[in-house]
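Hello again,

I reread your note about wanting to compare the complex against the isolated chains. To keep things tidy I'm splitting this into two emails, and this first one only covers the full assembly. Below are the input lines as submitted, including protein chains and any nucleic acid or small-molecule components. They are followed by the predicted structure of everything together. The single-chain runs will come separately.
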Amino acid sequence: MLGRTLREVSTALKQGHITPTELCQKCLSLIKKTKFLNAYITVSEEVALKQAEESEKRYKKGHSLGDLDGIPVAVKDNFSTSSIETTCASNMLKGYVPPYNATVVQKLLDKGAVLMGKTNLDEFAMGSGSTDGVFGPVKNPWSYSKQYREKRKQKAHGENEDSNWLITGGSSGGSAAAVAAFTCFAALGSDTGGSTRNPAAHCGVVGFKPSYGLVSRHGLIPLVNSMDVPGILTRCVDDAAIVLGMLAGHDPKDSTTIQDPVKPFTLPTSADVNKLCIGIPKEYLAPELSSEVRSFWSKAANLFESEGAKVIEVSLPHTSYSIVCYHVLCTSEVASNMARFDGLEYGHRCDINVSTEAMYAATRREGFNDVVRGRILSGNFFLLKENYENYFIKAQKVRRLIANDFVNVFNSGVDVLLTPTTLSEAVPYLEFIKEDNRTRSAQDDIFTQAVNMAGFLSCLQDCQQ
Amino acid sequence: MSSLLSAPSALREDALRRLKREMWARAVKLGLRSWVGWRRGFTSKADPQRSGRVTAEVIEHLERLALVDFGSLEAVARLEKAIAFADRLRAVDTDGVEPMESVLEDRCLYLRSDNVVEGNCAEELLQNAHRVVEEYFVAPPGNISLPKQDEQEPFSHI
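Full-complex prediction:
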């Protein structure tokens, strides 16, 4: 039952084959069994069971709230959840209990979803491995798959069973692992530079990044206001469409959500790609791309062509600068957004009381890890008076050039771009930590961040399915 | 503290200086010592591998602005790498290009009507703060900047 899609389970609930409480219990027990993955920071057992009970009452009366009623979901721990600790995997917010729900969380709950818990991430969503949070790294469920275990046995003998586990990618690694391990049917992540699509790729699930402005960011603890979006992780594309349908739409509490009405939609049961024009950006053929990823990319393109779609090569000329541009804009906005953490109104506060500045400085030093501090300092450097024009404004100009690249391609008749998400498959943790967070982010975000800067939507699906 | 405000200015200056020294000594005892210590170490070592772009003045300035300390030479090296990475943008020709602040720049930002629809949640909000007195958040005294490097006292008396 837990391996089914959201739609299948929803049908099972409606037909009475399983009750919401039974489903909830199964997921909770699986979460306990897979605790070693470290996908969850907080498991909201009591809340989940209570929500499941209420869902059951609704089903008995025939008043179900829809496809999401009774469905176990998980939420990344940088979304505010009322009365449930929200930490962003940081010492700064350990013990912080928000007094409100993020809009996307509220929407899920209003539709009857059952909240299993808050998932693990890189501290403040900064990173591409889900390895830098204070609660420890998240392990990729595929590290324990038969295929990977066979591969490991062939490589080394007498090696410690668990020493070569794979990373999930990041920063929404916990959400991706939770979905991949069948402990929930959908999870919320956040996507600033690929943080939903990167772990989705490494964990073999569907990762969806909506267009900027479609889904509300109210309650999502912000990283980069001009690029953040809530992301959706599910096991199949149809499920992602169901969840998106529930979440999309204008929110008066987030003035960056567009006001155009969102029409309800369903995906066609059979995809007709005859009239589709697919673009393959030639600049994405990076030398660092692994041969395996390259071959899957080719196979996907050939598959579309054989089904009647037009597949052409396109150019996004500023691709090589997009990661640099992203790096400057991201650190600058982060420097600004992290200024709110001073220990006065919420979050960690140190014991120093001599002056506000001394208190803020010590609180922030104790609360943030090296990665966060590094980004704040870099951002402040780029925003210094003498550097503002040459770095920040320059990056904003380059951002326009990158966004224009996409607009030009889509205006020339291309409907969709087909690209890889990551350079290679998930790497073992021991290899990943050989380089620092900034270097890894620069390498791993290479395909994903351009779309964040241009604001477009992006969806990722595992090629091996 | 209130007596400081009513004393004549010369006495006030003196009292303030004394207070600063005492507070700094206490702060150092309580844990800012390592912040100070690393910066001392920084100026006395010259790492030939670093580009020298990030000078001691820049470091001090950034630490003050960000209220976050570098903490180590590695952190400074990381910043220099980040700057070198960002320097690649110079190669892009952006003549005549306007900066892009938001992808939604072609739309009007939504403004809701100016009606009070929620609020009255002071109690809930105060629950998250560590130090609260009645309905106030309690902060340490303000307008006292972190001392510069050359204002530090030797630690012999601690």
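For quick reference: The beta strands of chain B are 132-133, 136-137.

B.
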